[in-house]
Amino acid sequence: MKLKEKVSLDEFDGKRFQNRLADPKENKKAVLTHYLHNIYNGISKHYEKDALKVLKEYVAYKTDEENLPLAKEYALQEFLSEVENVPFPTPHNYTFKFIDLFAGIGGFRLAMQSLGGKCVFTSEWDKEAQKTYRANFGEVPFGDITKEQVKGYIPKGFDILCAGFPCQAFSIAGKRGGFDDTRGTLFFDVAEIIKGGFK
Questions:
Q1: Which domain holds residue 174?
Q2: CATH code where residue 191 lies
Q3: Of 85, 114, 141, which marks where a domain is finished?
Q4: What is the pLDDT of residues 53-95, one digit of tens each?
């Protein structure tokens, strides 16, 4: 008889778990890890409803697959431990909150954390960069920031917006497509977020 269930965020990538979900899994790990990273501050409330729904789906899946009941509280503690044991944790006594758009592998985040910042939202569409970001910070970035669903996860009340959007559209070394280049129009998404024009 097993005394402990194996509980890991990696299972969200498994085919069996993906096939059981009605909704796309794209933001499931992101919303859960963002919730866990903010569980000790008020920002967690912003992610709580969707995160607890994801957790409930996971617990139901594990219970069905393993034929053993899995407590939601146990799964939550296991996931919390997984996101907290990382090479670059958030400073305990942070003095400001920021969001990290076009996050890459987390260079801006490292700089902001070293200055006493707490990241409350991340976005990066590249899957390999997301994996490295998660390994560094224990948090899975949300995907494409041009999608309204992703913008809807941005909490209010952050102090600084970090956004290193692609510069190729404006570089003199490139084709200089400017705002006619899709990468150039990402500037307008950043401007929309700054204005608070998202839902």
A1: 87-199
A2: 3.40.50.150
A3: 85
A4: 998 888 887 777 666 667 788 888 888 888 889 999 999 899 9
Q: Which of 37, 52, 85 is the last residue of a domain?
A: 85
d(CA 183, CA 145): 12
Sign of CA dihedral 149, 153, 156, 161: negative
Provide the domain count of the chain: 2
pTM of the shown model: 0.78
Active-site hit among 71, 110, 135, 167: 167
Q: Mind spelling out the 3-state secondary structure of 124-139? A: CCCHHHHHHHHHHHCC
**Separation of CA 105 from chain center:** 12
Q: How far is CA 33 from CA 12, 119, 170, 179, 182, in A?
A: 12, 12, 34, 34, 30
Residue 82: which of 4, 2, 6, 3 has the closest Cα? Answer: 6
Residue ranges of alpha helices (H) inside 89-184 are 107-114, 127-137, 148-151
Active-site residue 167, yes or no? yes
Residues 23 and 93 in one domain: no
- Which of the listed ranges 15-29, 36-50, 67-81, 158-172 does the model predict with the highest average pLDDT? 36-50
Give yes or no: residues 16 and 113 share one domain: no
